[in-house]
Amino acid sequence: PSVVLFMAASAAAFIAIPEKSDIFWVSFAAIVAAFGLSIFSGFKTAEDTDTPSCFMFSTISGFHFTTVVASILIFAVKFHIAIRYYAALQVLILGVFAALIILGDAGHNYIQAQEEELRNHSSFNRK
User: Fold this and answer.
1) 100, 66, 77, 30 alpha-carbon torsion, rounded to 10°
2) Can you give the pLDDT of all 127 residues of the chain as single tens digits?
3) pTM of the model
4) What's the angle, vertex CA 58, arms to CA 55 and CA 62, rounded to 5?
5) Neighbouring residues of 109: CB distance < 8 A, sequence distance ≥ 6
6) Radius of gyration of the CA atoms of the chain, in A
């Protein structure tokens, strides 16, 4: 469903905006990156739905998408900043959220390893 929604929104954007400026392409790339991060987060969450730490992935991807849309509306639509600053802003936003996902994945893996070690610890296993 999210791929169909993304394709429909992309088609609407290409139809609604006749002039494909550099700002449009940077904005579109930022939305594609947010969608990609969201898909990655969905896969990570689906791997282990019983662990509360996996829900952090969907939260981060939701904040990322919201930040990208807000930055497009504020800096591209309202203020029309220069393309080099706008592209740098979008790269910075992607970098921050990618780092958060990487750190979250490392934390999630650490929690999983600790839970597995706790399950296998002999003093907690009753025979």
Assistant:
1) 50
2) 678 888 888 898 888 888 889 999 999 999 999 988 888 888 877 777 666 766 788 888 889 999 999 999 999 888 989 999 999 999 999 999 999 988 988 888 888 888 888 888 766 555 5
3) 0.80
4) 145
5) none
6) 19
Other CB atoms closer than 10 Å to residue 122's CB: what's the count?
Answer: 6
- SS3 readout for 24-52: HHHHHHHHHHHHHHHHHHHHHHHHCCCCH
Q: CA-CA distance, 7 to 80, in Å (whole number)?
A: 26
Please state the φ and ψ torsions of residue 107, each to the nearest 5 degrees. -65, -40
Euclidean distance between the first and the last CA atom of the chain, given in angstroms as a whole number: 47
Which residues have CB under 8 Å from 87's CB, separation 6+?
Answer: 22, 26
The type of residue at 2 is S
The residue behind tokens 């002999």 is 122
